Protein 1
Amino acid sequence: QVQLVESGGGLVQSGGSLRLSCVASGINLDNYAIGWLRQAPGKEREGVSCFRRPTGSLYYAESVKDRFTFSRDNDKNTVYLHLNNLKPEDTAVYYCAIDGSQICDLSPLVYEDWGPGTRVTVSS
């Protein structure tokens, strides 16, 4: 059974940093495209970053490029999203998600399994 669990969210001041983690169980993340997505209050869910191991494809949304960094620990079957220079508009629930067809895409529609999310709140 696939399970994804995010952690690391919290309340941080503008300009601060957080590291989000997503631990996978029941699957090997090497066989999936992995996405980080977020949903801000009153807004639609949007892609933040995605990674596809076979090609090394790694994409970021323009709004987070140069501030957020995707990384992974194969031994722990875990991926991370490092959030730096946070802004109030980054406030959202952040999700990790996987796609078995390995489509690395920022569209939420391609992802088939999701974690419950972790909340990030950035104060001004």
Protein 2
Amino acid sequence: QVQLQESGPGLVKPSQTLSLTCTVSGGSITTNYYYWSWIRQAPGKGLEWMGAIAYSGSLYDSPSLKSRTSISRDTAKNQFTLQLSSVTPEDTAVHYCASGHDAMEYWGGGTLVTAAS
């Protein structure tokens, strides 16, 4: 059973960069045809897909966040990371890492990141 766990600071100041790490266990981030995504949910809003990194290392960006997001991975640690630059209070959200082949089969528990001074 694949398990994902998000980690990172819960508070980020406006204009700074949000950085989160997803640690994967029970499976490899290089498993063929699996995609590893970041998804967020702001208070009172729906889920928003932020981007993904594929088993091959290929990157997929959200058009609305493309200029501010950077997703990378560390295959030795079986982790993938998210960086979101120039945060504003509107970036306050619960952030999830998730993975799957045709759908998001596995989800982390989510971590709240608040953008505030």
Protein 3
Amino acid sequence: QVQLQESGGGSVQAGGSLKLSCAASGDTRCMAWFRQAPGKEREVVADMRMDGSSTYTDSVKGRFTISQDNAKNTLYLQMNSLKPEDTAMYYCAADSFCLPLVPSGFGYWGQGTQVTVSS
């Protein structure tokens, strides 16, 4: 059984930074960050695989960095140069495989942490 617990969300002004954390327990071969803004579908932000490779959605490339501390079994998302359009509930997700990178492809979810970016 996999359990995920996010933390680190908050409110910042545009251009600011936040770092999200996701403490995991259980077998988490693929972990990812998703986000969902009000009225929009949940979308993948970034994912990290066991080999250390990662991918990012185009809108966050160069601004967000996903990383993992294997000793602590914790996934991170460093978010820099935040924009108002980054405002969303951010979710940590995990499963055995990283494909497909869609919400239905992940069986384990955290409760979410809110990120609000003001202009």
